[in-house]
Design a protein that fits this description.
Helix 4 (102-118) packs parallel to helix 5 (132-143), helix 5 runs parallel beside helix 6 (171-181) and helix 8 (224-236) runs parallel beside helix 9. It contains ten helices and ten strands. Helices cover 34% and strands 18% of the residues. Strands 1, 2, 3, 4, 5, 6, 7, 8, 9 and 10 form a ten-stranded mixed beta sheet that branches. Belongs to the arginase family. This is Formimidoylglutamase. Mn(2+) 1 binds at residues 130, 155, 157, 159, 246, 248. It comes from Leminorella richardii.
Amino acid sequence: MSRWAVTDPEVWQGRNDLAEADNALRVFQTVAQGHYDRLDAISQSVVMLGFACDEGVRRNQGRAGAAAAPDALRRALANLASHRGHDDLIDIGTLYVEDDQLEQAQQALSSKVQACQQRGRCTLVLGGGHETAFAHGMGIYQAYPESRVGIINFDAHLDLRASSRATSGTPFRQLADYCQQQNRPFHYLCVGASLAANTQALVSEAQRLGVEVVWDSDCHTSRLAEVAHQIDAFIERCDAIYLTLDLDVLPGWQMPGVSAPAAYGLPIENLLPLLKGVCRHDRLRAVDLVEYNPQFDTQQLGARVAGRIIWQLLHDWQHKALGSSASR
């Protein structure tokens, strides 16, 4: 089973500094709260949805616990200072996935994303495992049937596994299969992947599908400008961009709270400039953060890192209507 629920107001709490000044605001004071079934009432540019699921992680033999992530990430964001972009966010709740009903839940999330996008709203989804990406991605493809959709995935893993059932390791293989069925191009760029964490079978599959890969060992500071240029060139070939961020792309000492902490990783000081480059493009329509696992984040370091990443994304994201460029 799966069920939608609005976010408990107790999640959006923080320090109140209004006695100091009327503009001493924090995100919990500027985020709007809406209802998942009242999309026509939304005026904000970015719609936040939670996907409380880790069934895909379990199926992929990972460490369960990511189902608790959406509210943990909201809490990490809530107390940060509110600046440009943070008051343009509305939280419409979370889809809770129960039992083994992953595929039905993915369809439910996909339909909600499609509806938001068709109303001209961007979507920010808080997973959940990376099975979130198949649902989010399908919502984007279905919202823009004539567009060249580009997927930018910051991730230690290519997530191109073949499996008889959806898992956290299959989302981009599933999206590639969908594109093939619909005779649509599959544009996928994976940044920060670890060759040590991807078998030759997965690398070969990426080559077969024409996937662009930037390995973690090529994301050091001296090559950052070159990586940014590659990302820009990828975006220019697409009409609508879906950005998905698997938090296990970060090194384990910055992000311990994931199913598979990275030994090398793409550190936050290099990640944020690359994300900023993506966010300045008005073709960016959708973002998600996945794989955060509060159960393994004993000192809340990972939550703070993830909260800062969400904060920065919202601050840098240039929200413009996807007009004629989407049908080129």
